[in-house]
Design a protein that fits this description.
This protein has 142 residues and is α+β, with helices and mostly antiparallel strands. It folds into two domains: 1-57, no CATH class; 74-140. The chain has four helices and five strands, in the order αααβββαββ. It has helices spanning 17-32, 37-54, 62-70, 109-123; strands at residues 82-88, 91-96, 102-106, 126-130, 136-140. A five-stranded mixed β-sheet has the order 3-2-1-4-5. A hairpin with a 5-residue loop joins strand 4 and strand 5 (136-140). The longest helix is centred in the first third of the chain and has 18 residues, at 37-54. 19% of the residues are buried.
C-alpha cells in the first residue's frame, strides 16, 4: 500500500513537511521498483533531505531573506558532501563520499557509528550508515 501525506512511516514524522512529502514520493517509487520497505524508507529519507539541501524552498518573507543573505551557507564549512560507515574485510570504516581511502577504521560497527556521529556534528555533514552487505541502513543528519 503506497504512503501518502496522512499515512506514512512513523520514522518520517519529524521531517519537515516539504521533506516528508518528497520522502514519501521517493519511498513509494522504491517500493514500486521492488525495494524492501525498511530499505525504501532509509534511502528515501536520505535522498529527500539531500534534495531539500539542493533545492531550497522559496523564501516566504523579506525578513527570512535578509537573515539568509547574512548567514553563512551550510555548505561553506563542508569539505565534502557525506561520510559513510562501511564494512571492510577486517571490521568497519569511515570514508568520505567519492573517495576510496578510509578516514579511519574500527573493529566494530558501533565504534564507527559513534565516530561518524561526532564527525557529522563537528563538520555539519551527513553520515550514511551501511549494513554488512553494503546497503544503506540509515543516515545521520547533523
Amino acid at each position: 500500500m503506497p504512503w501518502n501525506k496522512q499515512d506514512y512511516p512513523v520514522s518520517m514524522k519529524n521531517l519537515e513537511p516539504r521533506v516528508r512529502h518528497k520522502a514519501i514520493e521517493i519511498a513509494n517509487a522504491l517500493l514500486d521498483d521492488g525495494y524492501e520497505e525498511g530499505r525504501s524508507i532509509a534511502i528515501a529519507t536520505a535522498k529527500a533531505e539531500e534534495w531539500d539541501e539542493n533545492h531550497p524552498a522559496p523564501e516566504s518573507s523579506k525578513s527570512d531573506s535578509t537573515e539568509r543573505r547574512h548567514s553563512e551557507p551550510v555548505s561553506s564549512s563542508k569539505s565534502h558532501d557525506n561520510i559513510h560507515v562501511v564494512p571492510t574485510d577486517s571490521g568497519w570504516a569511515i570514508k568520505e563520499e567519492g573517495k576510496s581511502t578510509y578516514l579511519s577504521t574500527f573493529d566494530t560497527k558501533a565504534e564507527a557509528v559513534d565516530k561518524a556521529k561526532e564527525l557529522s556534528k563537528k563538520q555539519n555533514i551527513r553520515a550514511i550508515i551501511h549494513n554488512q552487505d553494503g546497503q544503506i541502513a540509515s543516515s545521520i543528519k547533523p
